[in-house]
Amino acid sequence: MQKKLGEGRPMKIIEAMKKIKDLRRKFDDLKADIALHCAHMDYEKPVYGDTQRVKVTGWLQACDDIADEILTLRVRIQNTNLVTNVTVELAGKKISKTIAEWIHRRRDLAKLQESVYLVMSDATLANSRRLREGRVKESSGQDRDVTIIRYFDPSLRDQKIDMFRSEPLQIDAALEIANAVTDLVEI
User: What is the pTM of this model?
Assistant: First the structure.
């Protein structure tokens, strides 16, 4: 298991993420070599001569080793994300959550909460009734003024929608910093 990355210092989250990306590239390169050299026709000369079987076997082992290293790095990142708190300022409030919690907020929960405020409307497609204030003619033929009675504060709704829309960007900014400065937790 690789604990350090260069100069004997702990590996940062961002370094582990980039290392995983590079390991995937190496894995794909080896897989392409295996596909190309794992068999040949009896009339062809193997590219690696008598060592072709050894070469392919070595590549297979390297792929296994790379997959193990990717797994180790991913688990270390997950563990780090579960125990590392990050503070994000949202709507003027400083909120502290683990990196894992912020990832979930960023992935879909902020959008989910925004969606409930988006349906609180009286004149948009979100509300299929499309309520309108004004004068209406009653069945008796008389005109009558009608108003909409809202069970929500439109200003608060607008503030919440704005907050939930900007939350992912604020989370991204905080997590970029956290990923650059946070050491991976050992497993």
Answer: 0.81
